[in-house]
Amino acid sequence: MYKNRNRGFTLIEIMIAVAILAILGSVAFSSYTDSVIKTRRSEGKTALLKLMQQEEQFFTQNNSYSVFSQASVDANEKKFKWFSGEAASSSSYDIIATACAGDTIQNCVLLTAYPGTTNVNSTFKDPTCGNLTLTSTGVKDVSVSGAKSKCW
């Protein structure tokens, strides 16, 4: 005599498979998010280093560094790219050049990269490092205390 047996998955087996997929998905998404932040941070650091080279060339020709920002109107200030990427809308950092604290622009420039401002991609945030800074004296820093070694 032939018995009709249904073959398939039980509800418990399907629930276990879905739970495993959810765990793997959350781990993968977390790793992906961290990789995106690190990539964008590298974009900001690269932009700071390139801008510092440009500032040094400017200093060689003018015996002074230049301040600049997105709001710059002076022709010399407009020579400097104030965002970190190829275009402002897709950049992760807004970069501003000011005189170092306690010094003049003739002696020292401080470049600060601000993540996710209204001038660039405002959805980007970097809670690990915050602002990235670089001075013409070679000092690299971040605005989150204790994170310098992770970020630079």
UniProtKB/TrEMBL annotation:
This protein's UniProt keywords: Membrane, Transmembrane, Transmembrane helix
Name by which UniProt lists this protein: Type IV pilin protein
Transmembrane parts of this sequence: 12-32
Keyword Transmembrane: yes
Originating species: Undibacterium parvum
A GO BP entry: type IV pilus assembly
Pfam annotation, one family: N_methyl
InterPro entries xrefs: N_methyl_site, PilE-like, Pilin-like
